[in-house]
User: Fold this.
Amino acid sequence: MTARVKVASLHVYPVKGCRGIAVGAARVGERGFERDRQWMVVDAAGRFVSQRTHPELARVTARLENAGLCLEAEGCSALEIPLAEPDRPRCEVEIWGQRVEAVTEGEDASRWFGTLLGEAARLVRLPSGTRRCVDPRRARPGDQVGFADGYPFLLVSEGSLDELNRRLARPVGIDRFRANIVIEGCLPHEEDEWSEVRIGGIDFRVVKPCARCVVVTTDQRSGERDPEPLRAMSSYRSAEGKVLFGQNLIHDGRGPVRVGDAVQPTLRAV
Assistant:
């Protein structure tokens, strides 16, 4: 095992499907990093919208400020969302077959995303008190997640990205993989061998490889798509009909994680 593995970068994605924010430190809360995937865009029927079907979401930049979330996209005026939870009636939305109680962020946000996507859309927030439980087949009672696809954290190593880029004519950036925790100092895909990992003072369970989809083919600045890197990944990272890259984590504590923190893994039993 590599002796010195550490956190290379940390990323929070306030709105599911939109660009992330690189941070020097982030606090682990009950659902994952605080403010991570706290918001989500839904269609007229209340179903979640992501880059799978709407790659133009990659054009939306997010900025967290003291009092609000600021969203910007080329051709659109800035949208300001207060961090304080709005006093509005609850609504029910759907994400991966789960029905979850949420709060709509109002007509201005609906018009903003409707203009961006060219169809009816709403921005919703996962309010305090609403529990979205992690799939019990891989979780423990009490494990929660925000509007991330299924798990509170995604970890990817720079070594794995380097191995992928060695196979590509044009290298891709780590942002294609929308990880929360990027680590350095380990061999390519060494994270596949871990059962647990301690980062800073927080313990995480390594519960499942991440099955990748068309999102990794989306340029996270322009929203444009290309067959790579999914085509190259499928040639050496396929298992049971899925392309695997990175690991999903569930946390067993709360507190800060910082860039530069040591990463202490536990190997899976053979």
